Automatic annotation (TrEMBL):
Superkingdom, natural source: Bacteria
PANTHER family associated with the record: TRANSCRIPTIONAL REGULATOR, MARR, TRANSCRIPTIONAL REPRESSOR OF EMRAB OPERON
PROSITE patterns: HTH_MARR_1 (PS01117), HTH_MARR_2 (PS50995)
Family annotation (SUPFAM superfamilies): Winged helix' DNA-binding domain (SSF46785)
Residue ranges occupied by any HTH marR-type domain in the UniProt entry: 5-139
Listed InterPro entries: HTH_MarR-typ, Tscrpt_reg_MarR-type_CS, WH-like_DNA-bd_sf, WH_DNA-bd_sf
Organism listed in the record: Flectobacillus rivi
Protein name in the entry: MarR family transcriptional regulator
């Protein structure tokens, strides 16, 4: 079966891959040794009052072992720590360190610049329509 390079599915998947590659490249160019996926995980952890490491894989629809490798790397870099649950020793809570907060801020500054550059030539109206379509696609995929 031939891939239709202008089909929605191809363009959507290819665009997401290109954006992640661009983010990784720009973070590296800025001297930030963190992957976009790791930045996203830190953002998720920071956005919740309590984050249990086993819940993250389900939240981002990724394999648990892949998520745990990222968590191990983030912990080794000093960006987060694991804290034992007071009632269930099997559970580990993830907590962002000060270094983690600093790296998140640095990453966000780079990502903001990249996003602005990528939005050149796209009107607010177009962006609003695109956002609504993305929301509908996500809702439809969860049915």
């Amino acid at each position: 079966m031939e891939v239709q390079r202008n089909s929605f599915r191809y363009l959507f998947a290819d665009t997401v891959k290109a954006l992640f590659k661009q983010s990784a490249r720009e973070l590296a160019n800025a001297g930030i040794q963190i992957l976009p996926e790791q930045h996203f995980l830190l953002h998720l952890i920071a956005s919740k009052e309590e984050t249990i490491q086993s819940d993250l894989a389900e939240m981002i629809h990724k394999d648990k072992s892949a998520v745990m490798r990222h968590i191990d790397q983030l912990e080794a870099m000093g960006y987060l720590i694991r804290v034992n649950d007071t009632t269930d020793r099997r559970k580990k809570h993830l907590v962002i360190t000060e270094a983690g907060k600093d790296i998140m801020k640095q990453c966000q500054e780079v990502i903001d610049v990249v996003t602005e550059r990528n939005l050149v030539g796209i009107t607010e109206e177009e962006l609003e329509v695109f956002t609504k379509v993305l929301i509908k696609l996500k809702q439809n995929s969860e049915k």
